[in-house]
Amino acid sequence: ENEERLNLLREAGARPEFYSPSPSLLGNGDKALFAMLLAIQDMRSAVRMLSLRAYFFMGNSEYEEAWQDLLACYRLSDHIAGKASLVQELVSTACKGIADATTLALLERPDLPPELAREILNEFDGRPPRNHAAAATDQTERLCFLDAVIDDELPADAMRRGVNWNTVLERGNWWYDRMVAARRQPTWAAQQAAFATIESDIDAIRPDWREASAVVFSRNARSEFMGDVLAALFLPAVSSACESEDRDNSWTDLMRLAAALAVYRAEQVDYPDSLD
């Protein structure tokens, strides 16, 4: 009954561009950027349905049809990756995880044709590592903070007059600069150390009675403190998003290995004695 719709998803995956406008844009009035609704979450259901039909095709030994559905899952995941926000990146990773699990079931089929096994291997050989979290933090996530600070409804008027909001914006940018620089460290260990330092500094953002007078009487100190507090509220879980990216990249390496084993078995009847 849903064949036409599922085939349309296949066709969508093959398109070169993707655009998913926020439903928030359909209403009247301005909304803060962080309050924008993202329709991208629905892509999980689309990928689950294609994955389900791929199992159906496998049950009928229609392996090429199953792979075409799974290929569409990967293409849809790729379309929504790197589109500015961490939410989109996480949804993309989740969609690819659904496709990976189903592809493993396909690779395990004992009568998988060698040429199809090699086609799947070529797909994983050509996949670049996922590395969008830093750019998403540097762009949309940063803009969510800046937009919220300049939103007229955020601080009360009395508070607004007592704070230098340029300092608040600068302080927020300083925090986001640190998060982006942490992700762009050359090694995983260096990234983890940088994130740990940032998270420790965020945990330390709380009023200190010894410095209360400075916050009360110094407009600059008060402004920096306000910037720190707001940044701590808005900073996304960048380290968690980066860990998700790293796991996905490791999983892609394992999928490449699984596909290589499937090719070997399809061509040589059995698995090799070692991974060499």
Short description:
The protein is mainly alpha-helical. The chain is 70% helix and 0% strand.
List the defining traits of the structure above:
70% helix
Descriptive overview:
- There is one protein chain.
- The protein has 276 residues and is an all-alpha fold.
- Helix content is 70%, strand content 0%.
- It contains twelve helices and no strands.
- It has helices at residues 3-14, 43-59, 63-80, 86-107, 114-125, 133-150, 157-161, 165-183, 188-203, 212-217, 219-234, 238-268.
- Helix 3 runs antiparallel to helix 4 (86-107), helix 8 runs antiparallel to helix 9 (188-203) and helix 8 packs across helix 11 (219-234).
- The longest helix is centred in the last third of the chain and has 31 residues, at 238-268.
Approximate helicity band: 55-70%
Order of helices and strands: HHHHHHHHHHHH
Strand elements, count = 0
Shape: elongated
| Rounded average pLDDT | 87
The proportion of strand residues reads under 5%
Radius of gyration: 24 Å
Which class of secondary structure composition applies to the elements? mainly alpha
Determine the N-to-C terminus distance.
Answer: 47 Å
Helical stretch tally: 12
Contiguous low-pLDDT stretches (5 residues minimum) are none
Oligomer: single chain
Largest sheet: none
